[in-house]
Amino acid sequence: MKAIPNLHLEADTPFRAPRFSVSRAMVLTLGVGWLAVTTLPFLFVVVTSLKSQQDTYSGSAWSLPSALDLSNYEAVLNGGFWVYLRNSLFVVGLSTTLILLTASMAAYVFARMNSRINKSIFSIVVAGMIVPLHVTLVPVYLMTRTAGLYDTPFALIGPYVASSLPVSIFILTEFMRQIPRELEEAALLDGCGPFAIFWRIFVPLSGPGLATVAIYNAIALWNEFIFAYVLTSTPANRTLPLAVWDFQGQYASNIPATLAVVTLTSLPLIVAYAFGQERIIKGMMVGSVKG
Amino acid sequence: MSFIKLPMATMPKRSRLGRPAAVVSATFLAPAIALLGIFLLYPLISSFRLSTLDWNGLGSTERFIGAQNWIHLSHDPAFFKAVRNNLILAVFSVLIQMPIALTLAVMLDKAGRGSRTLKILYFLPLLMSSVAIGVVFKNVYDPNFGPLNAALNALGLGNLAQDWLGDGRFALGATLAVICWQNIPFYMILFMAGLSSLSPELREAARLDGASPLRIFWHIELPHLQGTLRTGVLLAVMTGGGPDGASELMATYMYRTVFSSFQLGYGSTIASAMFLIVLVVASVTLTLTRRFETQI
User: Fold this and answer.
1) A279 to chain B: nearest residue by CA?
2) Domain containing residue A96: CATH number
3) Is residue B94 within 8 angstroms of chain A, CB to CB?
4) Phi, psi of B64, rounded to the nearest 5 degrees
5) A29 touches B: beta carbon within 8 Å
6) Does the CB of B270 have a partner CB in chain A at under 8 Å?
7) Could A136 and B38 be called an inter-chain contact, meaning their C-beta atoms sit closer than 8 Å?
8) Residue B292 contacts A where some CB pair is shorter than 8 Å
């Protein structure tokens, strides 16, 4: 009699010995299979970037380098990589700051001042999420030329901030709506005006929302290609995604050099990812509110 | 009227929120509205205006030609080919990405804590720029030196090796594969998030009642995910498979028309048409999937 409940208990404890089952095998197969699909291209890129050019033509694509060849990295790092990196940091840093500032100001209004006109403005702003960015490309290009900003990193700031605003405002409005009203009523009694309430209550309490919006936009803009390609023309003013493009033209048939550029340009984000995977994954999933 | 135009600096430093809410609203909204007006709304309207011009984009040589560009577009085989291929990419993206992403999500959900490392690694492709991915897969698909054909040869499947991007029969499929490679993890994590809100008691109860994992999936997990699935389908359709696939082929055609053939007016016609197509596709998808809407 005693043995039966015991057995039952054993089978239900999380510390049971791994049992073979069909579903377990499927999880494993699929999990490992997709892992291979995901990581093998990365492996190929890194391994090939360490080969000499001759190596890539003589050996198989999957063979290891016959000797470690770092000359490709040297050439890329001495060939203007740092300028592209600096431009990317500048453009993405300034754009993200402006997005956070303007979007949180607008979100504060939409979250708290529910006049009829504000509601209609909110709907129009949110509808901006479905505009395909390519549609604005030609007019923005013409405007940039007229404004004399063509081929400067500043040309990218306006389009980058504007294209990020609809989704950022939407997210921050949702976030700020959940901030309890009692806090601002107390501040109001203390004599705070709307600016003080915004700056001392809404901004600090929206920390997690602001972080999510910052991550989402910074990654999207860090990888943006078409506007950067059209609005700038010289390497001195271009961002990292353009480095891949420019070097590719320069090293047309040099596969290892091209892949060294890919590795180097992808590295900053992957390093950032190594430090905060969960935050970055969460930040990037925010894009799904677009549905 | 004049008090609305009062610069904020002259306002008393400590004022009540009771002060005209319209002034506060206008001040806080101004920067965002200005940016959206200049860089989103104006270009959108301007694109339609440019579509009535015959212009190479240089100097003031533009000529108003009315609807001629639109008439030309309505029987431009290159445009219709781009639209068709874009729609194919969108439809197949949904058909391929959703089931694989869903399967991976359900399996990782069952695997519990051990799935964390896998999730982190699966996510890597989403950090890459579209141009870097393009360069990587151009090399992966390379008929002579590419690892894909090398792998097929090594596995004794050498007769399957192809000129993946050069051969018209495979190019679209090869592109589709890259879109899926990058975006399946996105939808997978979207579904994992959806599954995490499913109460464990419900599944446990079904399990104790003797329901097989497949039945649990079909009758509990899948219905629970229908709102998430709708979001996923909508995203995939609207972006042509993924954020960077964004109506890519139509956009490429537009780009070449403007910046290589210098037909700025006609390029703007393509862009405007693209906007209208995205609008129609989005509303059709929204309507078709309305019955799957769920409140979270």
Assistant:
1) B120
2) 1.10.3720.10
3) no
4) -75, 125
5) no
6) no
7) no
8) no
pTM: 0.84
Q: What percentage of chain A reaches a pLDDT higher than 70?
A: 90
Whether residue B64 contacts residue B53, with contact meaning beta carbons closer than 8 Å, is answered with yes
Give me the residue label for tokens 């600016």: A195
Each residue of A183-232: pLDDT tens digit?
Answer: 888 888 888 888 888 998 899 999 989 998 999 899 999 999 889 999 99
In a domain, A236, yes or no: yes
Instruction: Flag if B271 and A137 touch (Cβ within 8 Å).
Output: yes
Scanning the structure block, which residue is given the tokens 């190479």? B56
Q: Bridge-partner residues for B53, per DSSP?
A: B64
pLDDT, position A148:
92
| Number of independent structural domains in chain A | 1
Query: What is d(CA A94, CA A200) in angstroms, rounded to the nearest whole number?
Result: 23
- Give domain status of residue A136, yes or no: yes
The CATH homologous superfamily of the domain defined by B70-127+178-292: MetI-like (1.10.3720.10)
Size of interface A-B (CB pairs under 8 A): 273
B198 touches chain A (CB under 8 A): no
Q: For residue A249, give the chain B residue with the closest CA.
A: B135
pLDDT at residue B107 is higher than 70: yes
Cβ pair A190, A201 in contact under 8 A: no
Concatenate the DSSP letters of all residues of A178-231 into one string. Answer: TS-HHHHHHHHHTT--HHHHIIIIIHHHTHHHHHHHHHHHHHHHHT--HHHHHH
What are the beta bridge partners of residue B64? B53
Average pLDDT over residues B27-51: 94
Are B143 and B163 in contact, with CB atoms under 8 Å apart?
yes
Q: Would an 8 Å CB–CB cutoff place B16 in contact with chain A?
A: yes
* pLDDT number for residue A23: 67
Whether A270 has its CB under 8 Å from any CB of chain B: the answer is: yes
Q: For residue A1, name the pLDDT band (cuts at 50, 70, 90).
A: very low
Cβ count near B136 (within 10 Å): 25
Residue A200, domain extent: 76-290
Instruction: Specify the residue for token string 């063509």.
Output: A150
Chain B residues touching residue A41 (CB < 8 angstroms): 136-137, 140, 181
- Specify if A160 maps to a domain: yes
B70 CB within 8 Å of a chain A CB: no
- Closest in B43, B108, B189 to A285, CB measured: B189
Cβ contact A197:A156 at 8 Å: no
> Given this model, what pLDDT does residue B293 score?
61
Determine phi and psi for A11, rounding to 5 degrees.
-65, -25
Cβ atoms of A255 and A72 within 8 Å: the answer is no
Which ipTM score applies to this complex?
Answer: 0.85
Inter-chain CB proximity A138 and B28 less than 8 Å: no
N-terminal to C-terminal alpha carbon distance within chain B: 45
Q: Does B146 contact A61 at a Cβ distance shorter than 8 Å?
A: yes
Structure tokens at A284: 């990037």
In chain A, which residues have their Cβ closer than 8 Å to the Cβ of B16? 188, 193
Sorted by where each begins, the domain ranges of chain B are 70-127+178-292
B240 close to A (CB below 8 A): no
CA distance A128 to chain B (A): 8
Domain-embedded: residue A127: yes
